[in-house]
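Practice problem 4.
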């Protein structure tokens, strides 16, 4: 079992987390082509090495960014997506 660190609750079992996608995959705006929508909705980078991803910790329902190294599954950092929401 791997532990992920929720920025609000601390280390927890990976089963408590839900993957939300690549960080920085921004919704296209304005007049959008079908190709741009397809890219936004269906294609993922699936990078080999360092990656920034959006995750949700299901018990506290908070969404955050996790930086991890996909070759080793090492989590290098987690940070609140909207830190001002917890202030
Ligand atoms: Zn949490």
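Answer key:
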């Amino acid at each position: 079992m791997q532990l992920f660190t929720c920025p609000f609750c601390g280390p927890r079992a990976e089963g408590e987390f839900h993957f939300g996608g690549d960080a920085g995959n921004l919704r296209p705006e304005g007049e959008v082509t079908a190709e741009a929508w397809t890219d936004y909705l269906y294609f993922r980078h699936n990078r080999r090495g360092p990656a920034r991803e959006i995750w949700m910790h299901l018990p506290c329902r908070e969404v955050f960014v996790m930086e991890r190294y996909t070759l080793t599954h090492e989590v290098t950092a987690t940070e609140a997506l909207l830190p001002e929401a917890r202030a």
